[in-house]
Amino acid sequence: xxxxxxxxxxxxxxxxxxxxxxxxxxxxxxxxxxxxxxxxxxxxxxxxxxxxxxxxxxxxxxxxxxxxxxxxxxxxxxxxxxxxxxxxxxxxxxxxxxxxxxxxxxxxxxxxxxxxxxxxxxxxxxxxxxxxxxxxxxxxxxxxxxxxxxxxxxxxxxxxxxxxxxxxxxxxx
Length: 173
Fold this sequence. Notes:
- The protein is built from 6 helices and 5 strands.
- The protein is an alpha+beta fold and 173 residues long.
- α2 (31-41) runs antiparallel to α6.
- A hairpin with a 2-residue loop joins β4 (145-149) and β5.
- The chain has a 5-stranded antiparallel β-sheet, sandwiched between helices.
- The protein starts with a helix and ends with a helix.
């Protein structure tokens, strides 16, 4: 009788543990520390201003770089040149690799792709602005890097984007 109770208790514990492990959860990234790491790694950057998901007006700041619904993101930061020149670094981390851990992989990839497309549209709007107001900045803006990595989408607009990208990979591994 005692053995049956122990087996039942063990089965209940195993079932509970297996249910807790369901779904791919987002590994929380300290966006302020990531921003510091990426900006510090790129010595070509001028003085940068920063906004992110930790700010009081985070949703409004996010809408500057993307039209994706804010409730789909886990966190983000945007570092941009204080003098308005074509230097920007942004990382957006999506919730549960999209916005729901139960979503099919194709939906997760669709959300990541939509975020990357949104950042590319932001870059194109910056290119158009620079063509009008700061033509010498156009080449840097046109060379901006937009990539997905896991549940994150990166935008790097600088003279040495590989430095910030390497810092991102080191920080998130």
